[in-house]
Amino acid sequence: MGRSCFPRCGFARIIAWLQLVLGILVIVVSISSLFRFYSAGFFVHNEDICRHFYGPKDVYQGFDINDRIAEVLTTIENLHKKLEMNLQQMEKSKTRLEYKNYLEVEVLRPVYSAYTALKQLRLPKIGNGTVKEESLIDTFTTEEIRKYIAPKENRIGKINFYGTEKIYNTIGHACILMKKELEEYMDYDIGSYCKDDWNLAQKLMVNGCDPLPRRRCLTRASKVYQKPYPINESLWKLPDDRNVRWGNYQCRNFGCLSGKNPKRGYTKCIGCFEMEKEKLKWVTNTSLQVDFLIRDVLAIKPGQIRIGLDYGVGTGTFAARMRELNVTIVSTALNLGAPFNEIIALRGLIPLYATLNQRLPFFDNTMDLIHTTGFLDGWIDLLLMDFIIFDWDRVLRPGGLLWIDRFFCNKKDMEDYTYMFQQLRYKKHKWVIAPKSQHQVYLSAVLEKPPRAI
């Protein structure tokens, strides 16, 4: 029995010694911790020590967050390049197509998204190092909106070629009233595909949240893209249906957009998706006196009409006719229930995605011609129309032509609207008023901007 007790007693002694050693270590650590707290001023308050212990300049002494971010960026960038090289090698082997798709969708895109987000991790600061945010920034909680609105200082610390020290990105003032919709629009993964939300974007625009903020996501395209027709065919031929991403439209193909369909979209666009009918516009005489021909208008200023603007909603037929006469026309368009912008571009013409709220993005005295039809009618507020007309006057050069095409309103309102067009004292080349219905009338006119030499 005595022999069997020895191993147990020896083991107990070892455990006791271990407990004693651990106890001594605990006491030593506790004393050292109390000494550190004391030296830091916890028990004897010392302002200099506290500032040294907590001061913002010394907390990150020897640690530069920008250097750490740069290291992470370099690592992610190297990984991204390596994965791209592997993808290129996999493209040579069809048997690895599934792995290629997996890497591209599940690895490359998230890595690139993280890389872009980390690269843009910057906070605007003022001289003393504190974060400065404009009052408008505090209105929003979505990170992308806050980053977009925040002033962007020049990296070189000098005035840039614009003559400013910072770049300010702008949004429309009505964006504040549509905060929920705007935050939904700006809620996306950086570097990934944008949501199919063009209708949300257009809703924001037409309600005054214009211009919209830029986004850092990839625009979706049609699944089976087909190259456009040659220019000699595309002007008067409906594009291939596969070239339009038919998101949130009632029609699923261009044939559906014919005049026979009551739900084709913008109701004033009568027959504008039927190319045979479109070919007759502005080149064939009609029974209405308010329908002017292109050749007659161009004859007013022979050889002087080179560039212009078609202000309305349509499929670009006016621009197509003018292109055949070597005149370049930019067509404004909104996707009011139908892909107007897409068809204008696929016809080989230039769409300008703009609303009534927006100042025209052209410099002063540049356009030879402004043509407007089917958009501004008797529904429009007179004050709004006044701003629009003065903006037309701004971009129209001296001697340029303003072609008002089939403007209509109630008879009782015609005097008000005619004053709007006549107030700028343009020279009248054509001026025709004709009945549209029992209570409505048409107005068509071609007016020339005076020189106004100073």
Automatic annotation (TrEMBL):
Belongs to the methyltransferase superfamily. GO terms for molecular function: methyltransferase activity. It is found in: Endomembrane system; Membrane. It comes from the Eukaryota. It comes from Gossypium raimondii (Peruvian cotton). This is Methyltransferase type 11 domain-containing protein. The keyword NAD does not apply. It is a single-pass membrane protein; Single-pass type II membrane protein. Residues 73-100 form a coiled coil. GO terms for biological process: methylation. The chain crosses the membrane at residues 12-35. InterPro entries: Prob_Methyltransferase (IPR053223), Put_SAM_MeTrfase (IPR004159), SAM-dependent_MTases_sf (IPR029063). Gene3D superfamilies: Vaccinia Virus protein VP39. Pfam families: Methyltransf_29. Keywords: Coiled coil, Glycoprotein, Membrane, Methyltransferase, Signal-anchor, Transferase, Transmembrane, Transmembrane helix. GO terms for cellular component: endomembrane system; membrane.
